[in-house]
Amino acid sequence: MTDQAEPATTEAPQTIVSSWNEWDPLKHVIVGRADGGCIPAPEPALDAKVPEDSDMRGQYGPRPQETVDRANALLDNFASMLEKRGVIVDRPTPLDFNQPTATPDWETETMFGCMPPRDVLLTVGKEMLEATMSYRCRWFEYLCYRPLLQRYYMEDPKMRHESAPKPRLTNADYRPDYLSEKIGEQKRLEWTADKYFVTTEEEPLFDAADVLRFGKDLVVQHGFTTNLKGIDWLQRHYPDHRVHAVNFPGDPYPIHIDATFTPLRPGLILNNPQRRLPDDQRAMFEKNGWEIVDAAQPAHNAPPPLCYSSVWLSMNVLVLDPKTVCVEKTEVYQAEQMDKLGMNVLEVELRDAYAFGGGLHCCTADVYREGSCEDYFPKQ
Question: Is the pTM of this model over 0.85?
Fold first, then answer.
């Protein structure tokens, strides 16, 4: 008899959690799933966000299965593309989103989904933080990511798993003025320009997708989903960082910063031309040599069916490294601009998944990017 060699075994690499910005080389990421995605039932935060002429008004419950299957196929293809480029990809564990949820303060008839992990999870250095969330239908969404965070915690002895204080989300958290369906866009623009948003200052509220990471600096949008108490909580939680509140007049539905303000590499940011950063808030960037350029126009005049998001998901891109960016395949004008800005463009088909929670940045959450914590704004 001849000795037979033992079959080779390949151990999965141990998780390392670390990410300080939006552009360093991406090596490990979470990509969402569309399984069980729901149109949420009416609630104060949601009612303020849904446009008055939207086809989603009055609809809620499970999304059609054929749209779920199509979205999942696109998300799976995106995950596979990243893996072929050497990026480790993890996926969340969906819940049964089509069920009532409740706390002692409220109840709602459905949940939302787990396509956009960027909304829930904020990675700053070695820490992954679960955001408060400001929609009742998304209160339990963090549970989809707990299996992954528990594994990261066991595999990386330096990883910190934190959760912001869960808000009560009583009616005191929302301005009743916003609950009318007949506000009109002009009034909404006036209110948002005056920083009069649907969320009050009753308790700290923030979504992770309102935060952009620039090394030692965190830039946080004050709007519908993040209030000033939430921004103050982030500053207290990250005492070694500088936290900057920004807002973008011109957006009647200001939620999540990543379809408005998109850093591509050190020194370069895309800004939505309909929602320009105010002059007084540009000073930090200009003093430190950053260029803020208007993003290209979207290729579409309307969002896909049953989609909350604006057409400006065109600029909701995922930067893989300072020279490489993923752009949605049909957003040809944004791709052309990226090319002119010296970026290598990877086309990714995702538009049919937009309705489940957003674009390429939304549907991912960083676990590990190479690089360290740098000071990109030494002149403050």
Answer: yes
